Amino acid sequence: QSVLTQPPSVSGAPGQRVSISCTGSSSNIGAGYDVHWYQQLPGIAPKLLIYGNSNRPSGVPDRFSGSKSGTSASLAITGLQAEDEADYYCQSYDSSLSGRLVFGGGTKLTVL
Amino acid sequence: QLQLQESGPGLVKPSETLSLTCTVSGGSISSSSYYWGWIRQPPGKGLEWIGSIYYSGSTYYNPSFKSRVTISVDTSKNQFSLKLSSVTAADTAVYYCARVKDYGGNYLYWYFDLWGRGTLVTVSS
After folding, report:
1. How far is CA A30 from CA A70, A95, A105, in A?
2. How many Å apart are CA A28 and CA A33, to the nearest integer?
3. Which residues pair with B21 in a beta bridge?
4. Contact assignment for B107 to A93 by CB distance below 8 Å
5. pLDDT, tens only, B8-22
6. How many separate helices (H) and strands (E) can be counted in chain A?
7. What digits encode the pLDDT tens for the residues A59-101?
8. Residues of A in contact with B38 (CB under 8 A)
């Protein structure tokens, strides 16, 4: 059971917009800790997609955006492309159990 | 361009110690503002942070592993290593090493900005 909850799967047609949620609690996102997002293409190591809630590393298309509010964060992908089909993970800090970095359970994005 | 590469046995027997090394190339492991970490991913499952180390040797561990894990660094070889003791089948996973960006001065402000390709470690007799 992950500390950060993500939907197991989302889907969308090419060109559409999809959103992936990451729901936490008062010991992580709700406490103000930043959220980061990773994309994991099939069989490949994760890649940083969004850091500090809404910042894109160099080279990440602006079709990807992140936001945070209250105890949740969201990753939005606009202009969906076939190459976006991957698993997406959120990550934050959790102050329970003496403090640790935690990941969401992951969301599988299917491009229809 | 900085790269990370994991190495170590792909098969470990139950109750033994899993040992992996991450070699950093194309840059120095002694860079400020960066820690170095280990993350694992059981087959078909999500990511789990194991722990991280600074080049000075300062470490942070996931409390879930704290009694079994040791992470060390060898700056002369530009490497850092993971040891996980008393392994069981539940420790079977792809183990990734990663560079950890510290943007706030402590691990409340960490994210993983560069990853190795990962190595599968199977625990089986």
Report:
1. 5, 11, 18
2. 6
3. B7, B81
4. yes
5. 999 999 999 999 999
6. 0, 9
7. 999 999 999 999 999 999 999 999 999 999 999 999 988 889 9
8. none
